[in-house]
Amino acid sequence: MSVDTALQKLEAADGPIRVAMVGAGATGRAVALQLGTPVPGMRLVAIANRTPEHAERALREGGFSNWARVSSAQQAEENIARGVTVLTDDPFVLTSCASIDVLLEVTGTVEAAAGVVLDAFSHGKHVVLVNAELDSLIGPILKVKADEAGVVLTHTDGDEPGVAMTLLRYLRTLGLHVVAAGNIKGMVDYYRNPDTQKAFAEKNDQDVKKVTSFADSTKLSMEATVLANATGFRVGRRGMHGPACGYVREVANLLPAEQMLQTGLVDFALGAAPHTGAFVIVHEDSPLKKAQLAYYKLGDGPFYTFYTPFHLPHLQIASTIGRVIVHRDATVAPIGGPVCEVVSVAKRDLKAGERLDGIGGFCTYGLIDNASSARGMGALPIGLSEGCVLRRDVLKDDVVCFDDVDAIPGGIAGTLWREQNARWPSTTNAPVESSQQPLSVTGVR
Q1: Domains in the chain and their CATH numbers?
Q2: What is the pTM of this model?
Q3: What is the mean pLDDT of residues 418-445?
Q4: Which has fewest Cβ within 10 Å: 161, 200, 206, 437?
């Protein structure tokens, strides 16, 4: 049964999917706004946020008029049974609540989110991530934990990895040979920081560090890593090639053909119309098939670009929720061990004794690298970098390594990351060309 038909039947039977969300920032508010419409066959029944007032704002803006604050799973279950949306400052109230079918993790945190996701698994809940920070760091081992618990873990459609993967899977269904996929990116500048992004963040009512990560390549690299781990595709060099082009279809002829054919590539098109969304490149060398594709205005080949000209996570997440419940189908999830990861790179000359401020800060930007290369050099993942203190100077644009900091990060995320490495040990230390120059194009993001 198709997802839309199944959801209509759930709506008609008054048995909608019960959705809970952890996080009520800009993305969480947008999700609540859409799910509050409501979407046929599903209801947002609960929100957890460490600042309850932010969750109340999300509910008000989403059109909810009746909610209750709760402090236990039993209170949550009683209110949900009466049709009352619940709000809590404790996400573990929701992970343990029997009246919830699927949990959305929308915080953008790493350590806190890791604990919430594991607890959701332990209580038999499916999890949809709107959290590339977490997924790019320990998505593969979390997928193992989800499988062991018999639940689905997926990143969402609407974020670029989900947009690309949805298109990629469709093209594979048609029998096409997919060789590359990635984002359409308006601009990248490695050296943006919370000061340069403050005005933009305030104008758009967003967190300034998150906005900084959008501009400095970190979020781009995290999203590409999620896609790499879901496809097995690699990067052609640290930071990706990122060719500049006027129209996204040009990217098919600007990425290295040999790399696309040998390993598959994740990459991005810089400054390309339509300035948003995701692309997938296929290869076709049959003269007759190439003639057909040329007739339908896709060019002369042998590489062809298909693309989706939008990414709307707050809307498209409904499709992912439906696919999880109706078909137990993950939109985008790791297929094995880590293929790529996001390493920390100095935004400026850093001095011994400085404490790193993590994703979207003043100290480092994140670049995607092949996992074998990153592990071979002992690179510090940017998802584990916050709070680490440098034991020696690191020059601008140099990768920060574990040997450069005074302690290996602990906590749930650090433990899971080490478990992930032990399960899939690196087997090669092959170097990868480093991209040292900032990229900057006026445009979206």
Answers
A1: 3-158+314-327 (3.40.50.720), 160-311 (no CATH), 340-423 (3.90.1210.10)
A2: 0.95
A3: 55
A4: 437
